[in-house]
Amino acid sequence: MKNNIISLFGNEARKDESQYPATVPLYQIPRERFTEAAKPMKTAGARLVAEWATDETSFGKGFGIYVCYAKDSEYLILKTYTPLEDPTFPSLTKKFVPAYRFERQMRSLMGVIPLGHPDSRPWIKHEDWQEDVYPLRKSFDASKSISRVKGEYQWIRAEGEGVYEIPVGPVHAGIIEPGHFRFQAVGEDVINLEEKLGYVHKGIEKRFESLPWDEGAKLAGRVSGDTTVAHALCYCRTVESMTECNPPERALWLRALMLERERIANHLGDIGAICNDAAFAFMLYQLTILKERLLRTNYKLFGHRFMMDKVIPGGVAIDISDKNKEEILSEMNWLTNEFERLVIIYDENSSLDDRLRDAGVLTDGKAKELCVVGFTARASGQNMDCRIQNPFSPYDRIIPKMTVLNSGDVHARLWVRTDEIRDSIRLIIEILNSLPEGKITETFTPPSPDKSGFAVVEGWRGEIVYWVQSGPKGEINRCMVRDPSSVNWIALEEAIHGNIVPDFPLCNKSFNQSYSGHDL
Amino acid sequence: MIEFYPFIIEAIQIVIVLLFAPLFVGWVRMLKCWFQGRTSAGLFQPYRDILKLFHKDVILAENASWIFRFTPYLVFGVTVLAGGIIPIIFLNLPFATVADVIAIAALFAIVRFFTALAGMDIGTAFGGMGSSREMMIGSLAEPAMLMAIFTVSLISQTTSLSNMADVLIHKEFILRPSMAFALLAFVLISIAETGRIPVDNPATHLELTMIHEAMILEYSGRHLALIEWAGMIKLFLFTTIGIASFFPWGISTSVNLINISAGIIFLILKMGFLGIGLILIETGLAKMRIFRVPEFLGSAFLLSTLGMLSYFILE
After folding, report:
1. In a domain, A137, yes or no
2. Which of A164, A166, A280 shows the shortest C-beta gap to B286?
3. Which of A14, A36, A455, B151 has the CB geometry, 3.0–4.6 Å to B307, for a possible disulfide?
4. Under DSSP, is residue A167 helix (H, G, I), strand (E, B) or coil?
5. Where are the alpha helices (DSSP H) in B157-256?
6. Interface membership of A24 toward B (CB under 8 Å)
């Protein structure tokens, strides 16, 4: 990918030396040729990881437009500037589908206009915001409230005999996050689903900019509560890459331990919830018991059920004793037995099988086109796992197993996760068996001004991406957060085509995206 | 004194229907909790639920018409009326002479018709969706149910449930293939009619998957209490119809204290076992895709047809 860019742009592509780590290069290219760079990326088979904008007025520049591409283990960031008086840039949406929502979001929150973008409706920022208020700009004062205006969201309409609309949400009957789904259906067949999100927009990216570096980890841990370890870890790895701080080996292994425990707990809960949505409540209650035991052990060993705030820049906040180690090992033993017993029940129930197979199919081609990540991608034939492709200690020594299935249906997504639970149990046992001794923290000094860092971490939903930039005074100038849900939400709209209305909850649960991580 | 007998019997019958229905639902829920490894809320939780709903205010949709307000009372009244016809512990019910099993099917059809109307009345997407699904199930379940019951009535040469049960009790017991087919069909139909898993899930919160619950989503307070109570009675009545047509032994044929107490004990025992059977099905199966329901009810219809044919060929 890097060579493609150099051969296409020659001297016009300038490498930015302030970008860390060195393995993820950042090239600055001219604004007019921003879209042009997408073509060789597409032909190289790369995916669009994220697209975001920065306000670099404090450096005396305009807005920065960034896009990150990835292919296998290689990541590449391209950047271009757009001046304050003419904040436009050429859209990438026609080349890469995920840019569709990223660019709507950039337009809504930063006020940079993607030229040639097919959709001018706001995203995240709802219609009752004033249109010319751009919260991510430095000129926006987050401490003041803004007045509401009247506005209307233009939904995509379907017309014809027998077409009817079903609005669902944003408040749902279950205890889940808010999001609005609008179905156009004929009889029971869904002809279109449109999502509207942003109901849990909290201004997290803006909030980062007013926090000191070490407290950023706490905020990152609250981007999506169920992924607190992975998000905090990704933030920490980003800022550590900027200062070239190397946490002690023991801390790295403990981080992996927590990351895998988080993965198991969430997978267990979700497998149960998927079965419950097919009215097979038995699995839900049994798996909830397993999940609850894990969470209680977390509370006992780490002081928090979800291990929030335990990953800090420079290491981890809590150590485990040898006694704890034994405790986790015997717990993993117990878990394996109980879990395998339930997997058999799942596997042998033909009525469940009938519901889950062929429901909500996301084909290989669609998954690639939409650049989805995580278990969703792996269930649709995409080889993708940051723990394997971009390993950090201990994953370079204890290599996770990647389960890839091709059917892309609800069952495939569930089965990938079943396999991941088994593998995470193995990883935990191996981590504990060769856990290195030593310190658990390294002194962390905040990064110097005008640097940027990048990191990816495989959370249980998939690849989490952070890109952090330090400002001229050494503060956080911009922290870009990309939860897996930011790209995966759109896959649900695609997967529901050809399904019937009553199968939607099942499909939705099999993706189980984060609303909070998406809305930020 | 003798002329008051019919009134007393009918009154006792109605009281049994009203009180036993929530108890049976409580038993079913309790079993379900145990089968899933949970602690149950107790046998009497349905009574508390109904009582709670009666204490709550009714919130009416702005565009609700008289149909919406009238439906809960109609549904409750008609369901209780159906309860007056089915022999539960007495055979010679006064109502049984004027209404047969076709009338019972018609009463349930009235309930379904008005519930579906009320679902559409408030104009929400969920209500209409529920009504359309309910009518699809109804149109398939009703003929199948009549076919199953007719198979049984071929043996007794009557369509009155009381007489059918009477014949079965007094005739010599023989294993009849026609009855076996009809019973299987009746079980399938009852599951669909009473909205249990695998056809509908009475415990779900997912609006998009609901059938019966989607129609009554907008009801609250005493309206909801009546509809919920009527729903419990319907489940109870379907099990008692099943008992009367296939296992009537124990239902008291004459009105005296010993027979009546024996009748109550038999009822409790049978209901207890049927609850276990229901929960075995509900715990072991996932809900089927909605377009599998026609196949499911189609096979019920087929089974009852087979029952009828085997009666003529074999018996």
Report:
1. no
2. A280
3. B151
4. strand
5. 161-170, 177-193, 212-215, 221-246
6. no
Closest chain A residue by Cα to residue B201: A279
Does A425 lie in the same domain as A515?
Answer: yes
- CA torsion angle A486 A488 A490 A495 (round to 10): -170
Alpha helices in chain B (DSSP H): 5-36, 45-55, 66-83, 101-121, 125-156, 161-170, 177-193, 212-215, 221-246, 257-284, 293-314
Hey, which residues 440-469 in chain A have their CB within 8 Å of chain B?
none
Separation CA A79–CA A53 (nearest Å) = 9
Two tokens, residue A283: 């699995």
- For residue A285, the model assigns a pLDDT of 93
Question: Within an 8 Å CB–CB cutoff, is residue B40 touching chain A?
Answer: no
For the whole model, what pTM was predicted?
A: 0.91
Contacts of A119-126 spanning 24+ positions with Cβ under 8 A? A121/A153, A121/A154, A123/A197, A123/A198, A124/A197, A124/A198, A124/A201, A124/A519, A124/A520, A125/A198, A125/A201, A126/A151, A126/A153, A126/A198
Question: Which of B124, B126, B196, B208 is the best substitution to test chain A (most A C-beta atoms within 10 A)?
Answer: B208
Report residue B140 as tokens. Answer: 């398939």
Full residue range of the structural domain in which residue A9 is found: 2-115
Q: What's the token pair of residue A380?
A: 């649709």
The low-confidence residues of chain B, meaning pLDDT below 50, are 1
CA nearest neighbour of A84 among A141, A139, A144: A139
B136 touches chain A (CB under 8 A): no
Q: Which residues are registered as beta bridge partners of A67?
A: A51, A78
Pick from A56, A85, A115: which residue ends a domain? A115
CB atoms within 10 A of CB A73: 12
Residue A93 is classified by DSSP as T
Are A55 and A111 in a shared domain? yes
Q: Distance between CA atoms of B276 and B273, rounded to whole angstroms?
A: 5
Domain count, chain A: 3
Task: Judge whether A469 lies within some domain.
Answer: yes
CA–CA gap between residue A331 and residue A336 (Å, rounded): 9
Mutate to test the interface with A, among B29, B200, B289, B291 (most CBs of A within 10 A): B289
Closest among A99, A43, A32, A46 to A76, alpha carbons compared: A46
Give the pairing type, strands A26-28 and A63-71. unpaired
Residue extents of the structural domains in chain B? 2-314
DSSP bridge partners of B30: none
User: What is the distance between the terminal CA atoms of chain A, rounded to a whole angstrom?
Assistant: 30
Q: Looking at this predicted complex, what is its ipTM?
A: 0.89
Percentage with pLDDT > 90 across chain A: 62
> Per the structure block, which two tokens stand in for A477?
């100038």
| Domain stop point among A115, A146, A176 | A115
Residues A72 and A213 in one domain: no
pLDDT of residue B3: 64
Same domain membership, residue A191 and residue A101: no
Please choose, from the candidates A481, A464, A370, A453, the residue with its C-alpha nearest in 3D space to the C-alpha of residue A52: A481
Q: pLDDT tens, A69-120?
A: 999 889 999 999 999 889 999 999 999 999 999 999 999 999 999 999 998 8
Residue A186 CA to residue A168 CA, distance in Å, equals 16
Hey, what are A411's tokens?
């069952």
Question: Is A143 inside any structural domain?
Answer: no
pLDDT value for A415: 95
